[in-house]
Amino acid sequence: MKQLLKKIANIIIDILVVLILIVSILVVMLSLTSKSSGVPNIFGIAPLSVQTGSMEDTLNPGDLIFCSVTEVDEEYQQGDIVTFPIEINGESVLNTHRIVEVVEDDNIIYYRTQGDNEETNPEPDKELQTASTIVAKYTGTKIPGLGNVLSFIRTQLGFFLCILLPMIIFFIYEAVRVVMNLLAYNKEKAFEEAQSAVNNSELTEEQKKQAIEEYLASLGQQSNNAGNEPDVQTPADGNNSNAES
User: Fold this and answer.
1) Which partner from 21, 66, 186, 235 sits 20 to 30 angstroms from 171, CA to CA?
2) How is 183-244 classified by DSSP, letter by letter?
3) pLDDT confidence of residue 56
4) What is the pLDDT of residues 67-121, one digit of tens each?
């Protein structure tokens, strides 16, 4: 029963480690693609976290939404929900609003956007967007509440607590498990060697059994003695032949 529980625990730990590795790889990919394309994405799909209520009740704060990365010459229609960068307090952030009007001027197509929440966004956005400024389009898929988790993991503290710390604990656990397995293997190998030596000798069964027990006991004593190194201390009176002046 104990061995079964140990195997189950090892399987659970291995599964958790695989999940942590997958999440860490995804976070790194999101960071790298964000710098190159302007929107964090994985194979063209951008998972974004909704931070405000400007699109309620279509998109709520904390939702994790999935958008497809778009091309600079892509065409959009009225009603599409798109993502584009805006500047807030001198910082560029991604904003996701709905296209409420398609405007054409001098053969250039502009898109007027507005949030679905009329209480916070009673008027359309001041700046018009073009195909070159829009970076992604909402696919219609969202996971409520998971956006806050993704946002936290992408912070330094979140990455340490959710990725680095579990990995450090896992490596320590694996190192201990390797040492324990090595000790168990050496003990089993020593037992087999002792048993083989005794079986090849001309002894009675009782003598063979006693010889094996004594051999294993001597190995255990040697192991204990190896770990007990002498404790060298300076004499209390301060007289030390190796002391430097």
Assistant:
1) 186
2) HHHHHHHHHHHHHHHHHTS---HHHHHHHHHHHHHHHHHHHHHHH--------TT---TT--
3) 92
4) 999 988 899 999 999 999 998 888 888 999 999 999 988 888 999 999 999 899 9
Phi, psi (deg, nearest 5) at residue 102: -105, 120
Sequence-distant (6+) residues with CB within 8 A of 59 are 50, 65, 81, 96, 116, 138, 142
When divided into structural domains, the chain yields a total of 2
Strand stretches in the chain, DSSP E: 45-49, 64-69, 81-88, 91-105, 108-114, 136-143
Are the CB atoms for 92 and 86 separated by under 8 Å? Answer: yes
- Residue 176 shares a structural domain with residue 142: no
- The shares of helix, strand and coil residues in the chain, as percent rounded to the nearest 5, are 45, 20, 35
Q: Are residues 148 and 190 both part of a single domain?
A: no
- Whether 97 and 205 map to the same domain: the answer is no
| Domain range for 33 | 2-154
What's the pLDDT tens digit per position in 207-216?
656 666 666 6
